[in-house]
Amino acid sequence: MNSPDVSLVIPLFNEAQNLRPLAARIEAALDACDVSYEAVFVDDGSADESLDVLRELCAEEPRFCALALSRNFGKEVAIAAGLDHARGRAVVIMDADLQHPPEVIAQFIEKWREGYKNVYGQRIDRATDPKLRTALTGVFYHLLEKFGDVRLPPGAGDFRLLDRQAVDALLTMRERARFNKGLFAWIGFKSIGVPFDVDERAGGKSTFNFARLTRFALDGLMSFSSIPLKVWTYVGLLISAFALALAGYYWTRTMLFGVDTPGFPTLVVSIAFFSGIQLISLGVLGEYVARIFNEVKGRPLYLVAEKLGAREAKANASDKP
Predict the structure, then answer these.
(1) 3-state secondary structure at position 172
(2) What is this structure's pTM?
(3) Residue 38 in domain
(4) Which residues contact 130 (CB under 8 A, 6 or more apart)?
(5) Most CB atoms within 10 A, among 62, 175, 186, 220?
(6) Pairing verdict, β 191-196 and 37-43
(7) 1 in a domain, yes or no?
(8) Pairing between strand 90-93 and 64-69?
(9) Is residue 190 part of a domain?
(10) Containing domain of residue 284, as a range?
(11) pLDDT tens readout for residues 161-211
(12) 283 and 208 in one domain?
C-alpha cells in the first residue's frame, strides 16, 4: 500500500456537529495543494454522535479513516494514537473544532518542501480565549521557559506539520504523562512558524475546564523540569536560616531582659506554618512518584475499539489467510 504525501491526524471528543464542515474544508484545501493525502480521525471516547458521523464520512471518502478509542484517554494520547496510524511522508496535527483553519496547511506544505521538518502554526493572538485563561497560560509558559528543559516558540500549539523523520522520533517516546508541545520542541529538527488567526469554534464548547487545564499544566511542568522538586531544598534552607536567626534573637533578648512568658498563639501559628510547608513538599514528591508509578506499570497508551475506513478494510482483508 503506497504511503500518501501527507497524513492529517485529527483528535476529537464530542465534535459531531463540526465534522462535516471540517471534512468539506479539508477536501477543498488539500485538493488545491496537489498532494496525495489521508485524514486519520481519532475519536477519543465521544459521548455524542461523532462516531456515527465518522462512519458516514469514511464510507463516502476513501481517503478518510478513523480510530475509535475504547474510552476517553485525553487529547495528548489521542494524538499519539493518530501518529501511530499515520502513513504519510509528512503529518499534520489539527483540532476538529475548526479553530485550526485547514487552508493554512498549504503554507505548512510549502515550508516542508523548502526543507523544514517541524512547521508549527503560530497564533497571532488569543482573542478567542477568556482573559483569565490567557493570563494563566502566560504565567505557565513563562515558568516553563524560565525553569524548563525546553523552549517553546511563542504562540505555538498542536497545529503543525511534522516530517516523517520527526514523527518517527516522536513514536519512540511512549511516556503516559504527555505534554506534546514540549515533545515537539524537544525533538528539535529544522523548524519554522507560520502565523495564523484562530477562528471561533464552529459549534459546541471546549471540554478543557480549569481543572483539566491545571492538570495539563502540571504534566507539562513536571515532564520537562525538576524545579518543583529542587525548590524545596532552597525553601528548607531559607526556613532553617530564619529559624537560626530567630533562635539567636531570642537567646540575645533572654540574656539581656530575662525570660518572657511563652506565647500560645505564636506556637500554634508556627506549628501550622511548618506543617503546611511539609505537606506541600510531600505533595510535590507524591506527584512525581505517581507519574513514576504510572510509567512502570507498562500499560499501553490507549486501546482501539474500532477502526473505520477503506484503508482499514483493505488492511483487514490482507491479513486474512
Answers:
(1) coil
(2) 0.71
(3) yes
(4) none
(5) 220
(6) unpaired
(7) no
(8) unpaired
(9) yes
(10) 227-296
(11) 999 999 999 888 888 777 788 788 888 888 888 888 776 665 556 555 556
(12) no
